[in-house]
Specification:
5-stranded mixed beta sheet
Amino acid sequence: MDKIQAQNRIEKLRKEIDDLRYRYHVLDQPDVTDVVYDSLTKELRQLEDQFPEFFSPTSPTQRVGGTAVKGFKKVRHVSRQWSFNDVFSYEELKAWDEKVKRMLEKSEFKDESLEYCCEMKIDGLKIILTYENGKLIQGATRGDGVIGEDITHNIKTIQSVPLELNEKVSAVVVGECWLSKTELERLNIEREKNGEVIFANTRNAAAGAVRQLDPKIASKRKLDSFIYDIDQLNVDLPATQIEELAHLKKLGFKVNFDHKLCKSVDEIQEFYESWIEKKNEQDYEIDGIVIKINSRKLQDALGYTGKSPRWGIAYKFPAVQVTTVVEDIKVQVGRTGALTPVAHLRPVLVAGSVVSRATLHNEDEINRLDVRIGDTVVIHKAGDVIPEVVSVVKGLRTGKEKTFKMPDFCPICGGKVERQAAAGNRLISTDKKKTQRLSSSSQKQDFSVAHYCTNPKCFAVEMGQLVHFVSRKGFDIVGFGESIVERLMTEGIVSNFADIFDLKVGDLQPLERFAERSAEKLIESIEKSKTISLEKFLYSLGIRFVGEETALLISYNIQHIAYNKIQNLNDLVKVFPKITVEEWRNIKGIGEKSAESLVEWFGNRENIELLLKMEKLGVRIEMGEKGAIGNERGAGKLVGLVFVLTGELTGFTRDVAKDMIRREGGSVSSSVSKKTDYVVAGENAGSKLERARALNVKVIDEEGFLKLLK
């Protein structure tokens, strides 16, 4: 066979194989058996090997090929990947619909009639595919919505994803990667035979597959896809979501056509209820429906909140409830020393995943439920919410059940345990008999009861503090997760904050599964983290009652109460131990418990020595250029005022609102109290609004808030 004949044969084989793939994997209309398909593919591969000059990255043979990648490259999405807000009832759906209509009434589209495109919410993994001139150039995960991971090598193994479109357009499309129930069953039978852990659900198996470094492993799991959105297109976008789905199919994508155009909320509800019955008949998992305003121009008019599109909502199927047995109740110890009781359950499948534990929150919750070891309980799981114990089936009690009692001594270190009840930062009682049970949601928000280990050297407390220290909101040391913290503490390599900055590659390499490169990367991350803002630094220390907001208040105000200007960590060590409770409280928004906690922490010589050691190891504080917050007169229009934000803001995000308040000298609190001056209430404001009304705190909307600023 000469080159011209080979080229012609290769092109015909590619076209025929791709046509068979499309009919089988997209249209579900197989024309030939797998044996024929495999035979044609084998011939094509042989010809491509013989004539490498005719190589094409979009050839069917390139779906699984090449060597495994060394790691996942981070990629920035050209369009932000949003997540839909969830509703779980008809009432919530109606509230969303009414909100959309109110917003449109204020726009130029007030006379437009609304239509809704209702689609299946497939329980899989979101994928973003990029095509240039019709050819697939990149597949990525959602990640945090802005940055994802490049998984192109695994996307190519999905037969329903075209490597080349039917039209030579450039586009970015979005869809769901999923695994069928049939395939999950096959995989689990195989894994059980091999003594491997079986997959709990299709989503876990699919997510694990797309994150394989070796595409050959991913190809064995026979992943599938549905594409449902076009983010970008170099020609005119379809005018409606219904037309968009049709256009995606025309381009060659697999589209789920179990969707419907609805004219009203009642039609949506009817469609939703019909799928509650039918969802289990499908070979893929569905956990609800997605409702989108059909018109693209109305979508654009409605826009987005800080996290989600206003023009769409996910209507989740009813929460799943199952029964199981409480085999034991054990306590976990957190970084503050708080003891949390956890129910250890007889493993049970609920909402697609195996559950073996559920938090019981605190002793009051155990008493409210009257849950005992050995009880049969009802477990509830709605959407992605953590499973919780809803109730006890008391009729199944045998009399052998055991009442649980919170321990008097810490199960980790043996230190004495004390019960503390606090509202906000104010200690209410340490006497169990004097503590009232508060039932309303607004009260629960400001009221907490917990048992605490009083030993500051407790391993669990120290480990929790170190995990908090390196977390994203603290020093943000990439790759320094909880498991690594635990290993380093167990080995005696790290015992405090300062030890982290003294780590060397040689300290890590001897540890199991710590290769030279991974050790080097962690040390690089530690080095990059050494320069940190004052607010993040203070937050990272894990001082009790000093959260993000309090740390920000200190950062903005410290130069006004400090004896000297603070430029670095050495200055901080000289100044902070001298600040009194009264001086801390002079900062509007800092309460008595926070002030006392700050004085106690910076009055501890061991803590000061740790800070000095960190300074010697290269930790640097960036003070930044910040305006005053608090009692400084003439520093802004909102000086001395405390704000609480609640509900969805439409004109700007909460973070923007917080910045506006702080720039004008005000402060922001997370909870409503008598000290709150204003509650800024957006759409769907909840218990904070109720609390404000109960306390006669002034409530304003966005318009009123902007008037204050003007």
